[in-house]
Design brief:
The chain is built from no helices and 11 strands. With 115 residues, the chain is mainly beta. The strands form 2 sheets. Strands 2, 4, 5, 6, 9, 10 and 11 form a 7-stranded mixed sheet that branches. A 4-stranded antiparallel sheet has the order 1-3-8-7, with no helix packed on it. It is globular, with a radius of gyration of 13 Å.
């Protein structure tokens, strides 16, 4: 089993920055793709950014240019640097890991961006 713990969420003013982190632990033999998803109030969960084991990245159009995803394969950690935050970025952010054909989710960390 794999456990995921997110951290770094909080309250920030528009235009500010936050760095989210995700730590994976447990029975990890290999991790294919790690990514961040978010769910805003009244909306469906959506992809924010993800990175494959080959360092191929994908970003949602809404965050492209403002966010940077990175991972440390040796430590099994994933980070998301978010800059120029907007009120519409307010959501619960979830870490997702694909390993050995199985998907795991963290419990999420809340990001609130005030006007």
């Amino acid at each position: 089993q794999v456990q995921l713990v997110e951290s770094g969420g909080g309250l920030v003013q528009a235009g500010g920055s936050l760095r989210l982190s995700c730590a994976a632990s447990g029975s990890i033999f290999s991790i294919n793709t790690m990514g961040w998803y978010r769910q805003a109030p009244g909306k469906q969960r959506e992809l924010v950014a993800r990175m494959t084991s080959g360092a191929i990245t994908n970003y949602a159009d809404s965050v492209k240019g403002r966010c940077t995803i990175s991972r440390d394969n040796a430590k099994n950690t994933l980070s998301l640097q978010m800059n120029s935050l907007k009120p519409e970025d307010t959501a619960v952010y979830y870490c997702n890991v694909d390993t050995a054909g199985l998907n795991y989710w963290g419990k999420g960390t809340l990001v609130t961006v005030s006007s």
